[in-house]
Design the sequence.
């Protein structure tokens, strides 16, 4: 039985029924087992995406050679943090994750005081069962059943649950740092954030690995912003150049709430990401921003979904990308308005810089509107740096490279300044600089 | 005896072209196989190479699958349940009466076949079901060296031109419906404009589907030789029937160096009734090829008919400095579905394209814009500007926009902008406060919304389009 299933193409690499059985029997909490089981059933039922699927037409799923990577067993808790950084001091809580395990540093004593919850999923399921039950694989997954979302649900090897209770503010934010150092690691992280009514929080995620140590990451985030809450999420993807990233991230914004979600994609050989946002109740606001830069032979595919499922909702999206050398970027975006979602104001903007012939940028902005009384629009541009601006800078004595660098940074500055951490801003500018 | 009266019970206020001409037809039995194709070819006295070409296309088609990616839904089409050839029967004694009846039909459609009545500046080719019944102004055009005739006639009389250009823009196996068309196409227009000539009159084809259960497979080929100019107009109507009919056309335009082709369409096929019964399936492949330097192809379309429209008039900009344009108004009402847009493929250097698309959805309709702007690495300094706006009238319709922009050249610039919104309350209020009723006010606003496209149409056509949209908008308010 297991034999025949293994030989079919429903299972990704070694993530099969036998592996799942081991995982399931090892799992401690009934709730976690249940969640994994449901996801596994969906995972088994769904076909592997192929280039013939519209969404994957421009990013061949075969280039993600998952079979070449070794799934890490569920990460254990470590007593000491891995690789401390100076910028850790800017945060209230620092979660560091490596192949050896994870460590949660409670720098401001918020966890000890029970003000907020930052815990691995297993612990959270034990201590906060109702919350985990309602939000893990919960209503934020607006796009039905998806292979990699289901895969993550069944085989996550690091799950983190963050709950910011009602009216609580986390002034300096939470940092989740992934640092992989071993060749061939397959990390399947799951992050669930629940920002309770009227709360306010910032979450930063950073992904790092060495250029010569290929790793693979298949991540899923679920972000819940409840009534009148404000959640800011920043993700800086700096995987090494030989690595791969698949991300399927979902958020749901409640009444009078706001999400600010910035995705900065600079690393990895190939990445395929989906950012879906359900703008789900009157006066909910979603601000989505992105920055991506593909140079040499990098491939970046980003797909966004602004789904307005309630009237009187607002969303604004800005994704800026550059391609250089033989880099290829794909931006696919949809603004959706469900029937009855009137008085919606939605905007989507995608700007692309094509820095040399040989690089390629694809832009597919889209509108799917099933309601009438609303205002939805999108814009998309492609082009190189403005020759007049180049001329101006060079006439002031800047070299060609300096002028280009300045203009490319200026192009990205609008997105970079949306990140309220100076060290992160500097780091992104540095990354962009190195690519030019 | 053929009954020469026209049946008027199919006509409604809204669709005054819904009548049926009751004449005897020479019709092939339903069904599609190699014999059908040989029979069509024989009926048209085609040379052997043409029959072989059709058969090759048919064999290719049999291996293809019907595409499903468009944003339209319809019950499966039974290709064996369609009649592929129907022509008015001209048997000796009745010939004169038939011709008279044809003339009356086209007169009623507003298309004069008698040259004395015709608009001085327009030459018309009239296609009734599967055959071209008349082409006017032929002699006058021939004097100038312009060839304007039905494609059937062109295959017989200008085989060299047809063989040289046919299917060089839309290959036989390009897509499912193009392959089907290549196998069974029955008639359409052929235009050749010689070097350096600015064609002094508008060339026009009027397509009419009359017979029941008949598919119309139009094939049009227009060639503008070096430095020439031609403006071509196409109009379409069909009787109101409660069964769906298929219109699968292939149109190929070829512009050589310095040539310009302007192609305008007012498509007013029967849309089906309020419950979505009947109407034409308009599955069309239209493509232009700017082959030479500084050539230009401009598509203008006003799509107000058909139960389902599925078409993407495209331009391949191969010659350096060539220009492609696409201006479109697509109006959907009732249960109509339209998935339309364009493709601009920039191959040559300094090529430019402009896309202006206006979609208006009302009733329970679906209206989608789907477009591709592709800048290949060779297209240095290519430029594209795209503007697509959608207007929604009523809360049960939907409007979608799916553009694709691909850029592989550093010096190219593309801009794309799209908006979707309701008809402006402020504008409506302003107009109505001047004492104009809601329906007229809507019509005014919609006309303003479409103005960028209407102004690209030839003059008489533009007036017609405005009127047509007004009629179509009736009863869609409130």
Sequence:
């Amino acid at each position: 039985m297991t034999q025949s299933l293994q030989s079919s193409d429903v299972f990704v690499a070694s993530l099969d029924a036998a592996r799942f059985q081991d995982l399931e029997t090892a799992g401690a909490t009934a709730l976690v087992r249940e969640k994994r089981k449901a996801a596994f059933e969906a995972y088994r039922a769904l076909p592997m995406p192929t280039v013939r699927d519209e969404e994957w037409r421009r990013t061949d799923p075969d280039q993600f050679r998952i079979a070449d990577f070794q799934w890490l067993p569920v990460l254990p808790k470590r007593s000491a943090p891995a690789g401390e950084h100076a910028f850790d001091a800017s945060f209230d809580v620092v979660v560091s994750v490596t192949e050896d395990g994870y460590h949660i540093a409670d720098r401001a004593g918020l966890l000890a005081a029970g003000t907020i919850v930052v815990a691995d999923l297993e612990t959270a399921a034990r201590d906060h069962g109702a919350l985990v039950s309602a939000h893990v694989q919960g209503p934020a997954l607006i796009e039905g059943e998806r292979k990699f979302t289901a895969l993550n649900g069944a085989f996550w090897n690091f799950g983190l649950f963050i709950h910011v209770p009602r009216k609580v503010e986390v002034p300096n934010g939470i940092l989740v740092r992934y640092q992989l150092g071993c060749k061939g690691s397959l990390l399947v992280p799951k992050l669930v954030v629940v920002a309770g009514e009227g709360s306010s929080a910032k979450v930063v995620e950073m992904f790092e690995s060495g250029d010569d140590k290929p790793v693979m990451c298949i991540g899923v985030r679920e972000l819940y912003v409840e009534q009148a809450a404000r959640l800011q999420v920043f993700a800086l993807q700096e995987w090494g150049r030989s690595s791969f990233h698949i991300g399927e991230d979902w958020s749901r914004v409640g009444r009078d709430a706001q999400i600010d979600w910035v995705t900065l994609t600079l690393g990895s050989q190939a990445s395929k990401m989906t950012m879906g946002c359900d703008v789900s109740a009157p006066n909910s606001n979603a601000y989505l921003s992105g920055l991506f830069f593909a140079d040499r032979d990098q491939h970046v595919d980003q797909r966004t979904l602004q789904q307005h499922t309630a009237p009187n909702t607002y969303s604004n999206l800005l994704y800026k990308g550059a391609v250089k050398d033989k880099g290829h970027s794909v931006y696919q975006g949809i603004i959706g308005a469900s029937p009855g979602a009137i008085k919606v104001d939605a905007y989507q903007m995608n700007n692309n810089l094509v820095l040399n012939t040989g690089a390629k940028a694809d832009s597919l902005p889209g509108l799917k509107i099933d309601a009438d009384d609303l205002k939805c629009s999108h814009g998309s541009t492609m082009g190189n740096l403005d020759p007049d601006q180049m001329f101006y800078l060079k006439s002031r004595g800047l070299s060609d490279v300096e002028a280009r660098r300045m203009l490319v940074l200026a192009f990205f500055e609008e997105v970079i300044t949306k990140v309220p951490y100076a060290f992160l801003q500097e780091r992104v500018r540095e990354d962009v600089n190195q690519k030019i | 005896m053929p009954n020469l009266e026209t049946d008027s019970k199919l006509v409604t206020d809204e669709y005054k072209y819904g009548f049926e001409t009751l004449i005897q037809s020479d019709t092939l039995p339903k069904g599609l196989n190699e014999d059908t194709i040989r029979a069509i070819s024989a009926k048209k006295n085609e040379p052997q190479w043409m029959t072989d070409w059709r058969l090759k296309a048919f064999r290719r088609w049999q291996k293809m699958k019907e595409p499903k990616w468009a944003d339209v839904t319809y019950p499966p089409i039974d290709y064996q349940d369609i009649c592929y050839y129907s022509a008015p029967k001209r048997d000796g004694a009745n010939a004169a009466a038939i011709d008279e009846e044809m003339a009356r039909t086209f007169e009623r459609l507003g298309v004069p076949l008698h040259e004395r009545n015709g608009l001085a500046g327009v030459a018309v080719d009239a296609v009734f079901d599967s055959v071209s019944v008349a082409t006017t102004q032929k002699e006058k055009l021939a004097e100038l060296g312009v060839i304007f005739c039905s494609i059937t006639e062109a295959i017989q009389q200008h085989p060299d031109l047809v063989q040289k250009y046919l299917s060089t823009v839309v290959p036989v196996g390009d897509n499912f419906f193009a392959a089907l068309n290549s196998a069974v196409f029955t008639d359409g227009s052929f235009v050749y404009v010689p070097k350096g000539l600015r064609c002094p009159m508008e060339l026009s084809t009027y397509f009419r589907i009359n017979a029941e259960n008949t598919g119309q497979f139009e094939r049009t080929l227009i060639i503008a030789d070096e430095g020439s100019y031609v403006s071509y107009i196409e109009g379409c109507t069909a009787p109101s029937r409660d069964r769906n009919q298929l219109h699968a056309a292939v149109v190929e335009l070829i512009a050589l160096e310095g040539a310009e082709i302007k192609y305008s369409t007012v498509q007013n096929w029967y849309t089906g009734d309020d419950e979505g019964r009947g109407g034409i399936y308009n599955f069309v492949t239209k493509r232009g090829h700017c082959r030479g330097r500084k050539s230009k192809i401009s598509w203008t379309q006003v799509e107000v008919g058909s139960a389902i429209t599925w078409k993407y008039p495209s331009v391949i900009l191969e010659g350096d400095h060539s220009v492609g344009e696409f201006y479109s108004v697509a109006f959907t009402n009732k249960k109509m579905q339209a998935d339309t847009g364009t493709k601009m493929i920039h191959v040559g250097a300094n090529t430019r394209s402009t896309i202006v698309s206006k979609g208006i959805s009302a009733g329970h309709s679906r209206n989608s814009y789907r477009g591709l702007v592709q800048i290949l690495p060779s297209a240095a300094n290519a430029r594209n500007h795209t503007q697509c706006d959608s207007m929604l009238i009523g809360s049960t319709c939907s409007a979608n926009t799916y553009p694709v922009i691909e850029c592989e050249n550093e010096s190219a610039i593309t801009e794309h902008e799209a908006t979707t919104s309701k008809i402006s309350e402020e504008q409506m209020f302003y107009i109505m406060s001047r004492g104009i009723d809601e329906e007229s006010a809507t019509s005014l606003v919609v006309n303003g919304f479409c103005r960028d496209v209407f102004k690209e149409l030839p003059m008489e056509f533009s007036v017609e389009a405005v009127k047509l949209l007004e009629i179509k908008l009736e009863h869609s308010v409130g």
Q: What stands out?
A: The first strand of chain B starts at residue 6 and ends at 7.
